[in-house]
Structures are given as C-alpha cells and as structure tokens.
Amino acid sequence: MAQSSDVSAGQDATALSYNNLRVDVFGAHHSDALGTLLVNADIAAGAAIALSKLAALTVSRALVTDGSGVIVVSAVTAVELGYLSGLVSKPVANSGDESVAGIKTFGSIPVLPASDPTTDNQAARKAYVDAIAPSFKCGIATRDMAAVSGVQNIAHGLGRVPRFIRLTVLLGSDTLTYILNCMGTYNGSVVSGLYTHRHNFDAGFDYGSSSTYILWTGTIGGNPAPYQQQAVPTWDATNIILTWTKIGSPTGVMTFLWEAY
Question: Is residue 130 within 8 Å of 246, Cβ to Cβ?
Fold first, then answer.
C-alpha cells in the first residue's frame, strides 16, 4: 500500500490527520475517509465484527426494518417481546371474538361488564347472583270485606320482583258455625287457588279451586256466596298487588298470611 506524495521526506506519517492521508485501497487514490468506500464485498467472510462497533440504539427495544429495508428501533419493548417467547399459538387479543382452548387459571377475579347474562353459557356477575339468590319474606295482612272493589298493595321487601307468592286465609265464626280455609299461589303467570268451606255443620261441606283468584271469601258467620271478596294477584319489585272484587255485601275483616320468594 503506497502513500501519496503529500507526505514529505522526514515527516511522521502517523502525525497526519486521517482525512489528509490518501491511501490507495482499491487501486486508485481517494480523498474520502475509508469508511465511506466500504461495501459488503470488501469485508472478509470470516470477519468477526463486534455488534458493539455499531452506533448505540435505544435500549430494550426490538429492531425492525423500515420501508427501505433499513434497521430501525421499534416501539416494542424487550418485556413485550418476552411475552411471545414460547408461544405455540396466536396470543389472545384484547378485542374481537375468539375461542380459547384449555384450562386458564386467573390470578385475580375477572371483572365482567355491568350487564346480566342472557344465554345459558354466559358468565354471571356477583351482583346478578345476589339479586336472584333465593330469599324469603312473609307477613300478615288484612282486608275489610265491606270495602269496595279496588287494589291492595302489600310491600314484600324482597328488593326485586318475586318468583312465587302464597296467600293463606283461615276464617271462622265465634260459634264455629262457619269455617273457611283458602290458599292460593302465583308464579308470575299461573294462579292456583283452593278453598274448603263448611257452613252450620249440618249444611254440608263445600270445596273448590280457581285459576283466576288467589283468595276469595265471604261474610264471617254466613254462607260465602254470594257475599264475597275475590283477589286477582300480580306483583312488582316493591309490592304484592291484589285486585279485589266485591260481590254482594260481605262483612267482617279477613286476616291472611302472605309469603313471597
């Protein structure tokens, strides 16, 4: 490798600046720095060039190539890249519909949307389960049988719409000449009522059923027909709602047990 004539006799070549030193590298004299002339073919196949010779890049980031094929630093961190290590299938996305196979164990309790399940295989929130969990309320109510037809509201206290109610009434006169037992249930769509009645003991025994009235009764001490109060049930999240129909002129006060589930 020959030096150019720019190096004078007796001058120390090592004292010359790199850019002032012209070296015939590829069979010609060049004034550029050597690095600007280096191409891939000039590097020996066995050259072990350390990566540390490259300019420092942003730490802990994955490298990708840009639209020109040049290596650039991406926004993907080393931690995020580590999540992909050992994956044997596509990772779960945070949006869109997917089917996930296998048993998955959660380190914390999953938080579900604030909505109730509508199909058999949907997960249920604690609030939903608490709202429909079995609970029971009961109490005593009365009805003035001389009152005109109208609506009676009985607060059930469930804090939700009931799934089932039962009403039971036992009536009898002081002299035991009149006894009436009546019980009815309602499940939101079907009414089932039963009654038994005995008047003056020597007048025989009467019984019957109804799919309309949950309760019905007549004048205490007298034949229940045609002097009656009849109740058609419904409900809401606050009340058992009884719509009474008065027939004739019944008298007395009916006391009955109500149960709500």
Answer: no
The reported pLDDT for the residue numbered 152 is 97
Strands (E), the chain: 61-65, 71-77, 137-144, 150-155, 165-172, 178-186, 191-199, 205-210, 215-218, 228-235, 239-247, 253-260
**CA–CA distance, 178 with 44 (Å, rounded to integer):** 119
Residues with Cβ within 8 Å of 18's Cβ and at least 6 positions away in sequence, in order, are: 33
Exposed / middle / buried, residue 22 (Cβ in 10 Å: 0-12, 13-18, 19+): middle
The string of pLDDT tens digits covering residues 167-206 is: 999 876 665 566 778 999 999 999 999 888 776 655 666 7
Ordered domains of the chain (ranges, CATH): 1-37 (no CATH), 137-260 (2.60.40)
Rg (CA), the chain: 47
Identify the residue with better confidence: 250 or 238.
Answer: 238
Given this model, what pLDDT does residue 94 score?
85
Residues 220, 179 contacting (CB under 8 angstroms) = no
